[in-house]
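Teaching assistant here, posting this on the class forum so everyone can see the example we discussed in section. The complex has two components, and the goal was to see what a joint structure prediction looks like when all of them are supplied at once.
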Amino acid sequence: MNRDVYVIGVGMHRFSKDYIPKRDLYFTAGMDALKDAGIKFRDIGALYNGYIGGGMTEGIGFAKDLGLTGVPVTHVENASATGSSAFREAVWAVSGGQCEVAMALGYDDMRLMGNPMSRTVPGKKKLPSMENIMLPAGFFAMWAQRRMHENGTTIETFAKVAAKNWNHGRHNPMSQRRADHEVTVEEVLAADMVAYPHTAMMACASGAGAACAIVATKEWAQKYANGRPIIKVLASQSQSEVYNDGHIFMGAVVGPSSSTELTGQAAYKEAGLGPKDIDFVHVHDAFPIEELMYYELLGFCGPGEGDRMLHDGETTLGGRVPFSPDGGLIARGHPGGPTGLAQVWDATRQLRGEQGKFQVEGARTGMVHMMGAGSICIVHILQRA
Amino acid sequence: MAKQVPLEEGYMIIPENPDQPARLLGSYSKAANKHYFPIRKLCPITSEPVETVELSPEGVLFSWSFIMMPKMGSREKVAGYGVGQIDLPEGVRIQAPIDGKMGDWKIGMKMKLVPNPVVTEEDGTQYCGFKFVPVQEK
């Protein structure tokens, strides 16, 4: 990066299964982040809106509720990695010298998106696309099935990943799923099957929500620290796919494993550190197979060792490197546009030591990872300066 | 037999003679010596031109699942459907619905491509995607 960038404010509208007007989601998260940073909307020099559903310039319309300041507003969309992409654009706007302070604001309701693969041919009957063949749940389930075949991973292991994240989300006030009891492996296994071997309690929570992050130069970070530690963006990396054997071009929602591996390695290199230096991790845990694979692909254990790492409790709060400490996509939720920014919300607050019952004790460095439609991977590393 | 046509051009051919197998259309890159599906505009590895080729109608099951959720954008209840990844001899992996029920599929089993009718016109014409069915071993 050309100059150092810091996260100076984060905000959220709780992720929820309730239908909440998107305009309200947007305003709440934006104002929450401005308040957290201690600045006004007129201080923002660039605004990046992240949403997947929604009509033309919808986000610019919502931004008018925050003020008419002339700020450049840009819509960013990269499927699940939309919020992460908006964050990365804001980071680079500051790093590149476009402005001193930039905002990334993601919002969505996963249930209102319709079918991204539908097509209408003028003058013809409405036909489904040849590429509209199955849900993301199917892709992830086939990844899980193959892992069971190759590694002997059990359904109980997938259930354990989910139960862990449900229990992490119990104390997160922004979590969509907040169980009133300790969730067990048996409970996860007993839920309805959605795509074998994944049950409904293993699938990410789909709902509405918004999240926002404000980034700025070191001068701004120090000026508005207000007695809190300042949080530096050590690495900002993004990669699309490179060719892998067995490459799937059509409906590639999972994408090749190398995307996560290569983007993670690039982030470590930029930050000048390795997996042993990371205190907690957020990943695209839409289904348990992903979190399990990312233990290995991000270098936290060797190939095939993910099951052991999970069962040894290394990725549970209190363990060596907790994954999804706020509940992850499985419990905190996955509305779409804001998901990557919810990770930044938690990571920033973890590094400040503000997360109370789901605090990663002594956390100094955190990693946030997202995949977008299996075709784009984004990894950031944040550190308490 | 009803006339069957592909949902979209450029993905598959369905011969009029039902004894002839349907085939997917892919791209072959001489420069990379690789096949791809669906058709590419250029070789994604070398950026050299590719030629359109017919892919083998049979392959091997790489993975599978059984989905009990409606398709994206729909909330209607579904009875469930199988999905699979099938490796064709050309080194291409295809994702598609598969015929059968839980217990029918084993990784490594042979699968065959068939048209999958999804919309039928008033004149009986069937617009088809594609799916794979297990090959009964003799």
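For the discussion questions: Strands of chain B lie at 4-6, 12-13, 23-29, 34-36, 51-54, 58-67, 81-87, 93-98, 110-120, 126-134. Residues 25 and 54 of chain B are 5 Å apart (CA to CA). Think about how each of these relates to the inputs above.
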